[in-house]
Amino acid sequence: MQPTVVSREDWRSARLALLAEEKRLDRARDALAAQRRALPMVRLDRDYRFAGETGEVSLGDLFGGCRQLIVYHFMFGPDWAEGCPSCSFWADNFDGIDVHLRARDTALVAVSKAPLDKLLGYRQRMGWRFRWVSAGDSGFNEDFSVSFPPDSPGGEYNFAPRTHKGTEMPGISVFLRDGDSELHAYSTYARGLDMLNGAYHFLDLTPKGRDEGDLPWSMAWLRRRDRYEG
Questions:
Q1: pLDDT means per 10 residues in the chain (230 residues)?
Q2: DSSP character for 82?
Q3: Which of 60, 161, 190, 214 is the most buried (most CB within 10 A)?
Q4: Using CA atoms, how far apart are residues 219 and 230, in angstroms rounded to an integer?
Q5: Distance between CA 176 and CA 182 in Å, rounded?
């Protein structure tokens, strides 16, 4: 890139113009968040069971005493040797925040199809601390449109007919505890997950930005945290 170099006064003028746009975006984001909170909810009628470190747990157990639950749908298929590198990048950005979320009555857990021993082994390798449970064959991943039968073109992802052929895709789902039952409040997929990736937001502050325009695909540069050289 070739930088444009100006005087401090001209820089300040340009920065103030951009600040006005940033504030406009902040207000729009606040309004969108309010619309998100106002979405109607769906009462779940299926008793999902997961394999956790303390044994079998229900979806209700995953709340851990909180009223709200955020599930990160981590791509890790049953026969995979390791977790998805993109989901691993996202996990690097949310690992450790659960204590802050809990202070706001919210639990966080990652859910994958792979067996629990694979998930815990990979978590140890990556040095993460967040809770991770296996959905196995519970139907949870399928019901929330992140796991698909092999070589099946059907189904839906990101609220549209699925165009990819993979068996696993990422997402976030949010639930609210209502007495003895759970309500599905929100799910997002694809670019909707950007809000969780602090590293990308840091890069968005820099002159080069994410610098992915000339790559074969957007995250062709990405490696798991223990696979970078140097």
A1: 92 98 98 98 97 97 98 98 98 97 98 98 98 97 94 85 90 96 97 96 96 94 91
A2: S
A3: 60
A4: 20
A5: 6
Residues facing 168 on adjacent strands: 147
Q: What is the pLDDT of residue 190?
A: 95
Mapping DSSP to helix (H, G, I), strand (E, B) and coil, where does residue 126 land? helix
Question: For residue 203, how many C-alpha atoms fall within 13 Å in the half-sphere facing its CB?
Answer: 10
Asked if 175 contacts 185 with a C-beta cutoff of 8 angstroms, the reply is: yes
SS3 assignment for 138-203: CCHHHHCCCECCCCCCCCEECCEECCCCCCECCEEEEEEEECCEEEEEEEECHHHHHHHCHHHHHH
CA distance 81 to 114: 9
